[in-house]
Design a protein that fits this description.
Blueprint (H helix, E strand, L loop, with lengths): L3 H13 L9 H8 E5 L6 E5 L7 H55 L9 H5 L1 H7 L16 H36 L22 H27 L5 H8 L3 E5 L8 H8 L10 E5 L5 H11 L7 E5 L2 H4 L4 E7 L5 H13 L6 E5 L7 H10 L8
Parallel strand pairs: 3-7, 4-5, 4-6, 6-7
Antiparallel strand pairs: 1-2
Length: 385
């Protein structure tokens, strides 16, 4: 392509600035960074170039300007040169063909005693002019051969026309070659630059902040999609209704991992539930994958009051069985429905009845409020160009 040198310059500049240009493709660059229009009703070509780095614009525009200024001259010379080469080859072919047809005509004339004067080399080269000077020679048949057959006369005319036609074609090719040779030497006027390349004071595309925000939004959407697919594959459970149905008990608290420092209040409330009779004890049984920092926080909270009966956090249901009240703790999205059903059956087989559930929200779920905020703020409809 004509603009390939400009594209190579762009890649070189970006590479020197530390950017990875391996994925940069010529057609992508043409479609996204260049806008080239012919001004209506004129021969003026308008070129707009877009780049995220302001310093790159002028060098690239200067390169594009040089290419277009020299392109008509270069293209014209290349076209003329190709045509001249073609004509020279055709002249070589036609010279041989013309000489052969003239020789055939002359030999036939001599053989049949037709009164067409012999041709030397100089006359062969100008057969057309020489033939035109021989008025009515086709009818000047030797008096000693008045009974010449029609076939000979017809053949004579045919060879004459063929020689004349080839001679005319050769002369035309030589004239065209002469004209193009002059054209090749003629001065070619390049396109003129009517305005110097310039850079606008303000960006004409989205700001860097906007582009970063858009990429962040796309990243969140991709993360959401991956999270949903992963949860579908492992059959993770999130529904509180399904959870209550599996264990047939109430949900005492739902704790948010984002509000770890505010867990004190929910556990104080749990201690004051009617299930906490002073004479009774309570164990919290946890299942599934729960991060250590969450377990440490809960242990800290249940051991603040040494006189409290809320004293045990364990995985062991046999140990928990010794306590009067049992509370189940697990994190939504980190355990499958099948595992919860199996664990519920184990509790039933051990004769353990749960007094309630404490649930942890999924700390890997996408913040939908933030996502909706980003979609609303940076939607495509609101991008200002």
């Amino acid at each position: 392509s004509v603009l390939m040198p400009a594209f190579n310059l762009v890649k070189e500049i970006k590479f020197q600035s530390g950017e990875n240009t391996d994925s940069l493709r010529f057609m992508d660059w043409i479609n996204s960074a260049l806008k080239i229009d012919l001004e209506s009703g004129t021969s003026v070509l308008k070129v707009n170039y877009f780049d995220t780095d302001k310093e790159n614009i002028i060098p690239v525009l200067n390169k594009i300007s040089d290419i277009y200024q020299n392109y008509p001259v270069k293209k014209s010379k290349q076209s003329v040169s190709r045509t001249i080469t073609f004509l020279k080859k055709q002249i070589e072919i036609m010279e041989e063909k013309s000489e052969k047809s003239i020789n055939n005509f002359q030999e036939f004339s001599l053989k049949n005693n037709l009164t067409f004067p012999a041709l030397d080399d100089s006359k062969k080269e100008n057969f057309m002019d020489y033939a035109n000077s021989q008025n009515n020679f086709l009818f000047l048949i030797n008096p000693n051969n008045n009974s010449r057959s029609r076939e000979i006369t017809s053949k004579f005319r045919q060879l004459y026309r063929e020689a004349l036609r080839n001679s005319v074609s050769l002369e035309n090719l030589e004239k065209e070659l002469h004209i193009l040779s002059i054209e090749q030497e003629k001065y070619q006027t390049p396109w003129k630059l009517i305005s110097e390349p310039s850079v606008l004071d303000n960006p004409v595309g989205p700001s860097r902040t906007l582009m970063i925000s858009q990429k962040l939004m796309y990243g969140i959407l991709v993360g959401l999609l991956i999270s949903l697919i992963r949860n579908l594959i492992r059959n993770a459970i999130f529904s509180e209704i399904k959870i209550k149905k599996i264990f047939n008990t109430r949900i005492l608290e739902i704790l948010s991992p984002k509000e770890l420092k505010s867990w004190d209040e929910p556990f104080r409330i749990i201690k004051n539930y009617p299930l906490n009779d002073p004479k009774e004890s309570t164990a919290i049984i946890y299942i599934g994958n729960i991060k250590e920092k969450y377990l440490d926080k809960i242990n800290q909270l249940i051991n603040i009051d040494k006189n409290s009966n809320l004293t045990l956090l364990t995985r062991d249901i046999i140990t928990a069985k010794q306590y009067t009240n049992k509370i189940l703790l697990f994190q939504k999205g980190h355990i499958s429905a099948n595992k919860l059903i199996k664990f519920s059956n184990r509790l039933f087989n051990q004769g353990i009845i749960l007094n309630g559930l404490i649930l942890l929200d999924d700390d890997e779920m996408i913040d939908f409020d933030f996502l909706l905020f980003m979609l609303d703020k940076y939607s495509v409809k609101k991008i200002q160009i």
